Structure formats: C-alpha cells, structure tokens
Amino acid sequence: MSPILEPFTLGDLTLKNRVVMAPLTRSRSSTEGVPPDFAVDYYAQRANAGLIISEATNISPQAVGYAYTPGIWSDAQVEAWKSVTAGVHANGGLIFLQLWHTGRISHPDVQPDGQLPVAPSALKPEGTAFTESGMQPHVTPRALETDEIPGIVEDYRRAAENAKRAGFDGVEIHSANNYLLEQFVRDSTNHRTDQYGGSIENRLRFPLAVVKAVTEVWGGGHRVGIRLSPATTEPGKTPLDSDPKATFGAYVEALNAFGLLYVHTIEGVTQQTRDVPDSVDFGQIRKRFKGAYIGNNQYTLELAEKDLAEGRADLFSFGRPYIANPDLVQRLETGAPLAEAPKPYWYGGGANGYSDWPGMNGPVAIKR
Ligand SMILES: Cc1cc2nc3c(=O)[nH]c(=O)nc-3n(C[C@H](O)[C@H](O)[C@H](O)COP(=O)(O)O)c2cc1C
C-alpha cells in the first residue's frame, strides 16, 4: 500500500489517507449562489479523499467574480450546503469550505447593482471575467476606502459562522491566485498609502485581520487552513511581487500566531507549471510554518510518494484528476487509468460532466 493512501492525523481530525481534493470551481450554482441538489452527489461521491476542500465560495455579494459560483451569506445557501456536508459525512468523508473574495477579478455584471469590483488599488487585471453573458474583459476596479476594510473582515466572520452552521468540518481561507487577499499581500497589486499598503507589515494587515476573525469563530486555528500561491503570475505572465521570499516568509511567520491547521500551497502556477523562480522558496515556507503542509499542482501518486519520502509535504491535493474520477483513491490504489474531463465540462452546465462520472466499476454508490 502506498504511504499516500494510509491514514494521517491532521490536528484533531483523522484523515483516511493523504489525498486531498483540491478546491474546484464548477459554476453550477443558481444566480443567487445556491449550490444545486446534485452537488450533494458530486461531493459525496468524492468522500474517498482524506479531506475535501469545497469549491471557492463567496463570502458576500461583493465577493462574487464569476457567474454561477456559490455563496455562504444567505440562509438558502447555508441550507443547501447543509445537505452537501451531510452527504459527505454519511459517506465517511471530511469537508472544509473555501472562503473567497475575488476582489478585482470580477465584473460589474456579477456585482450587486452593476457596481465596480473592489480592490486594494484601482489597477485593471489582464484577461477576462466569466459572466452570465459570456467572457468579458476585466474592468478597472474601485480602490477600497480605508474605512470599508473592517466591514469586509466582518463579512469573512459571518461567512465563517455560516460555514459552521452548514456543518463543515473547517474552513480554508483563499489567499491565493490573485484574489482579494493576495491582491493586498503583493506589492504589484497593492499601491495603497494608508495602513493597508506600503511595507510588508501593512500589506499583511488586512489578510491577518481576516485570519484573526475566522479563527475566532472556529475557536482557534485548529479547523482553519489557508491557501497561498507565492509563485503564481495569474492573471498574467509576470511575477506579482518584487520579493516573494520576504513577503511570504513574513506572512507565514505572522500566520503562526493563529495556530492554523495547514497551509495549502500551489507549487508553481496553477495548472500551468511546477517550475518555480529562484525568488520563491517552498521549502522555506514548509520549514517556517508550524502547521501541516499540503502540496498541490500537477501531482501524481509517484510524485507525491517522492515528496513524502523527502519530507517536502504532509498531504497532497489533486484538482483536475477529481473532476472525472470520483473514485480517485481507488484508482490510485489499483493503478487503474485516470479518465480526463474535457474542458467544456469544467465550468457551467448541470449534472452532466459533473456528478455523473462513473467509477472504474460503474456508478459510484453513495449512502444518503
Ligand atoms: C476547473 C478548475 C477550478 C478551480 N477552482 C479553484 C477554486 O475554486 N479555488 C482554488 O483555490 N483553486 C481552484 N483551482 C485550482 C486547483 O485547486 C488546483 O490548484 C489546480 O487544478 C492544480 O492542481 P491539479 O494539477 O491537481 O489539477 C481550480 C482548477 C480547475 C481546473
């Protein structure tokens, strides 16, 4: 048996194996951000993972950046998530909710009253936004006023409370992939001159206030993880920070004060490459962070085994492989081939290409 498929103790949780289902936005929620009934099947079928991280979930209407993504601010959303967590638990799994604010990676068409997306600074991102009327160029966001920032911290607090009510086992704070928290952390996207910009300490002020609020809700950091992507260039091709080693080194040190359960890193650029520039050091992050370390990006069982043997990570998250292989752990165990999901199924649509992928021995049976 591969050591990757053996149990792992993560804080006070016992994971069946070291396989984590990475967060995967699938854009199947209603326009009100309510996950569909068939999300229960989708997540329950994947309860073979040691831990599931849900798709990124908007903390407030202002946080929305993509059409048909779920939220965790309304009672209807909480009720729908309750069914999902119950489905995962009935099948022996564990599930954390990923808390999301997209910041500038948004568009007026997905914002309340068509308002401009908000960001630390009024800097337009490259690329396009996914709206109900298709892909549209990003716009220049509105820079947040200093006195608006504590209100967003409160939105995170409420979302964390709602995640608890919805029966999640914990939450993951999405501070990666150039969404709002990372926009504050990086000096290319944060040009503020108030206490939330300038020095590293100032740029970390808002993300750390969020971590503080969320850990307060969860009775400490023992059920709270965080996602970081120090090497990402998204949404473009150029590095996003003038000194990622210093910035993320300081971030990790500061996070240690909150007793977080894990750091979930994207090694390289999400989906694109595992190459890491000299300016980023994942070994340093692993060493300096006091909690567990989840590695991600293009992992195979073999690479995970190698990295575990070398002590580079504790847990390994798999994203794309979980789309078309609901029984991924069984396939890894038996060496069965992995199915690949064509891209049109990734974002948007219904149950087709989402909760109807068969396992290697036919439909995946789930308990209800
Ligand atoms: C369809 C799709 C949706 C994704 N949605 C999210 C998300 O909601 N939150 C997040 O942090 N990362 C998201 N990612 C990134 C994945 O979590 C992961 O980092 C990436 O797919 C690389 O891992 P893999 O090589 O195992 O697929 C998404 C990736 C894909 C392909």
Per-chain topology:
Elements: E1 8-10, E2 13-15, E3 19-21, H1 38-45, E4 51-58, H2 75-90, E5 95-100, E6 118-119, E7 128-131, E8 134-137, E9 142-143, H3 149-165, E10 170-175, H4 180-185, H5 200-217, E11 224-228, H6 244-255, E12 262-265, H7 282-288, E13 292-296, H8 301-309, E14 315-318, H9 320-324, H10 328-334
Parallel strand pairs: 3-4, 3-14, 4-5, 5-10, 6-9, 10-11, 11-12, 12-13, 13-14
Antiparallel strand pairs: 1-2, 7-8
Helix pairs in contact: 1-2, 3-5, 5-6
The structure holds flavin mononucleotide.
Flavin mononucleotide (FMN) binds near residues 22, 174, 176, 318 and 319.
Structural overview:
With 368 residues, the protein is α/β, with parallel strands linked by helices. The protein has one domain (3-345): Aldolase class I (TIM Barrel, Alpha-Beta Barrel). The protein has ten helices and 14 strands. It has helices spanning 38-45, 75-90, 149-165, 180-185, 200-217, 244-255, 282-288, 301-309, 320-324, 328-334, and strands spanning 8-10, 13-15, 19-21, 51-58, 95-100, 118-119, 128-131, 134-137, 142-143, 170-175, 224-228, 262-265, 292-296, 315-318. The strands form four sheets. Strands 3-4-5-10-11-12-13-14 form an eight-stranded parallel barrel. A hairpin with a 2-residue loop joins strand 1 (8-10) and strand 2 (13-15). Helix 1 packs parallel to helix 2 (75-90) and helix 3 runs parallel beside helix 5 (200-217). The longest helix is centred in the middle third of the chain and has 18 residues, at 200-217. The chain is globular and about 60 Å long. The protein starts with 7 loop residues before the first strand and ends in a 34-residue tail after the last helix. The mean pLDDT is 97. Flavin mononucleotide binds next to strand 4 and helix 9.
